[in-house]
Amino acid sequence: xxxxxxxxxxxxxxxxxxxxxxxxxxxxxxxxxxxxxxxxxxxxxxxxxxxxxxxxxxxxxxxxxxxxxxxxxxxxxxxxxxxxxxxxxxxxxxxxxxxxxxxxxxxxxxxxxxxxxxxxxxxxxxxxxxxxxxxxxxxxxxxxxxxxxxxxxxxxxxxxxxxxxxxxxxxxxxxxxxxxxxxxxxxxxxxxxxxxxxxxxxxxxxxxxxxxxxxxxxxxxxxxxxxxxxxxxxxxxxxxxxxxxxxxxxxxxxxxxxxxxxxxxxxxxxxxxxxxxxxxxxxxxxxxxxxxxxxxxxxxxxxxxxxxxxxxxxxxxxxxxxxxxxxxxxxxxxxxxxxxxxxxxxxxxxxxxxxxxxxxxxxxxxxxxxxxxxxxxxxxxxx
Length: 383
Description:
Layout: E1 2-6, H1 7-17, E2 32-38, E3 42-48, E4 52-59, E5 61-64, E6 66-71, H2 72-81, E7 86-91, E8 96-101, E9 104-111, E10 127-131, H3 132-142, E11 157-163, E12 166-172, E13 176-183, E14 187-188, E15 197-203, H4 204-213, E16 221-226, E17 230-234, E18 238-243, H5 252-255, E19 262-267, H6 268-282, E20 294-299, E21 302-309, E22 312-319, E23 321-323, E24 327-331, H7 333-342, E25 347-352, E26 359-363, E27 370-376
């Protein structure tokens, strides 16, 4: 196999591939890039860590077709330090790879392409097209509440429901929950013409990578194909695919309280600013100490925010519009800040019931085409 690449093109193509390179597997092949060159001038590069994968196609001068696996980290580092305008990759029959650029030459071992793990099907009969900006917005509002190592596998990801005119995303980690939906047209790509009605769970790591790939541009779209176990995203320059979390997601609507009796409406930015000042006390990392909680006291038209830790204390006040009884309640400060940041409205409405009952955070005025709700459990205050 012999391929001549433009150095800048191959360097740009390798970078997104690194998101699906495994560094902890006992299978050496998943630490590499599967290189497949054909005489039509196309070089396809694939990485797959057995959970998520990436595929990139670039045009190159293919002098001899073939395939092999190259260590991803070494190949990426080698290409990055080369100085010539072109990079030539030559792989001999005994799997010795030679990378040359200008007067520089680097040699490394390769593996046979047959060692690469079997890939899931990347084109299916079921799929849809959606705006990248819309999908990115949904993920940005819910991904903070995903679990990463919960004993219940279905919580280690983001639940996504796709319909003809609606996208819904839900995530929960037992302490906080985010539920957001958008009403928008979703282009149907089902071959049999059936209505869109997909429910699936994207793994936490895959959601984080997908969020970085999506553009905040209404004009850009992404094609999505699904199988029972896999979801594939086709972008303009590359393909991202991921295995899905198997199982039935929790009945989230049953755990969201709707009969709250105490309400507070406040400026979101002002409230976050006060909590960030409290974080100087609540998030001090001192050996042997326990991270302090933030205490909220709702009285008349004021929300009093205080915290005490081994290194000091803080107190702040935020004006609110208050309905119902007075209340004192406490939270993990970072969880509360994350929930407020996920809500994009200028003013938020917080619903309470008791010091030991979960709260709901919502926009003071919900939009007709977008619904948001963020739930957070309080912490028990010491007597």
